[in-house]
User: Fold these one by one.
Assistant:
Number 1:
Amino acid sequence: MSAATNTTDNDGPYLRTRFQIGAVSLQRVVEAEMPILRPDEVYPDCTPEMLAANLHWLEPRFYDRTKNQLILGFQGFLIRSEGKNILVDTCVGDCKRRARVEFDNKRWNWLDRLREAGVSPEEIHIVVCTHFHVDHVGWNTQLQDGRWVPTFPNARYLFTREEWDHWQSEAARPGRERSGDYIVDSVEPVVAAGLVDFVPMDKRLTKDVALIPAPGHTPGMVMVDIQSEGKRAIVVGDLLHTLLQVRYPDWSTRFCADADHSRRTRKAFLEQFAGTGVLVLPAHFLSPTAGTIERDGYAYRFDYVD
Ligand SMILES: [Zn+2]
């Protein structure tokens, strides 16, 4: 199966946001790209020696030496299929009080970029959060008269029971406390508003678009699979955070709920899709985000689309 073709946006390769996969269109809606995490903060397995061995390709695009931080993107994906506007991941959000200074009380005005993509919040039919980490649920809600209300009033928000149950459990308490309790302001209000459908982790959304289970990083994480007219693309959420995990597939992150399960899921995906030409879009990969997985020695390589 061949990779999706790109549409030319006249905005340069690093800024390309639109992709056509057969009858389905996919548009990245970027909230921010910034240095944010020390390599050893996100990857416990990353020694100073290993970092040094990779600086020649990490710098300057993927790593900020002065801050000793990896540069990550934050974005949602607007998928149009069979007349449905499907939004995958809702970023960090604006005006949210967060423990991490890079996320705290921001005004990125991401909704303006969604409108520039041609869709108003009222026109979103389906919202999918690949998982409930703080940077994937933010715009589920917005502040209105001092209350957090659903941003997409006409949408069904599709949650998996596995993810919901995890974040309501005792095991998730440290993660909630670490971030500032975003579940309260960005997840629970849409449930209370009656806009949530609990769906299986392999739920089909349209003829060409379906969820794929990817448990490990969190218990209920899903990817979004697009297959149309012989083309295929997969929005993989946090299966991969940076290119370092393609080169070192064993590296799970400190944020993985189950590091071993996360590793198994990631390695199985890389093995399955290496060399297939399937377009892969990890949530935090810098623009243009999309690329293919290729075998490279004992590991893999990510070839960005041109
Ligand atoms: Zn994330």
Note: The mean pLDDT is 94.
Number 2:
Amino acid sequence: MCTNPTNTETDSPTSEPLGRAAGCLDPATPLEELVRRATELTAEHFTPPGGSGWRMLLYAPLYLSSHCVNHCAYCGFRAPEAIQRKHLSVDEALRQADILQDRGFEHLLLVAGDFPRLTTTEYFVEIIRSLVERGVRPAVEIAPQTAGSYAEMAAAGACGVTLYQETYNEQLYTLYHPRGSKTSYQWRLEGLRRAAGAGIGRLGLGVLLGLADPREDLLALLRHGDDLQSALPGRTVAFSLPRIHEAPAGFETPYPIDDETFVRLYCTLRIVFPRAELVLSTRESVVLRNRLAKICITQLSAGSSTVPGGYEDGSAQSHATSPAVGVAGQFPVTDDRSAAEMAEWLCKAGFSIAWNTPAE
Ligand code: SF4
């Protein structure tokens, strides 16, 4: 059972890594100092032998379904939104995967809303198994599952589970998740431990920046990561800090995060977890993604679409809204460089590009 990471007094962290985090988050610590240290640590731990730049994994999200029973206040897929929705059949999902494989991707993140009648364990397992047969290493970003369900996905070849807590402030969590299966804070909190116990090797944690005090949420996130690593050594831990840029009408981001704070938070993650994968999505701008890639990021999505069915044959670009059916995306993509354009930039910047995760 996971303890709630917010139960420890956030202003007086007890462990040495958390003490380090508190120092990094102190505005009196110059950002340049953190950037320098984070860059050194990333280079030290992620540069392949004989390489000059560190390894950058490129991946793509594959949105399977925009149907969702939940009412998350900040999400474009929330049940009350009057949007055109789509649930891909297994064949449609595999067709999307073919397009992404043609663009070079071998690591795909399967993303879906929570709609139990359609997003069943059998559905995910069939897609995972078929992708593995095609040479893809899939991970899932879906609703928290039972241990049995995770075990079936692991047996089918799922290499990772991404499950963001959104915020570790339980009171605010309750406010933002008023209805649906996601109302249970504890079930979500314990999801990654169930996944790891069921044989999943890569664990993706994160908070949705903008929902709560970023310093408190980051410290709680670090505690959660520390807790998982101590209890389940040998797993790969990955952190991501998605930031709210656009939300459904009526939702005002209560804790907007500026770019400098955003960079500070990522540097803190690197300094406290030198070997963790740090992930950055296409929500952020080209300028900021390029900047952070050179400091601490080790996994970038590219050429992304947040629409089920948003990847089109014969086009390098992806769509914010599927042109064929008018299906809506979960959030707007800001960096719309194609996979090839992203790879070209990384090459010129001296990175060593990987299209798949290493086998655990
Ligand atoms: S964040 Fe996830 S669970 Fe919540 S409404 Fe959006 S798709 Fe559904």
Note: The longest strand covers residues 55-65.
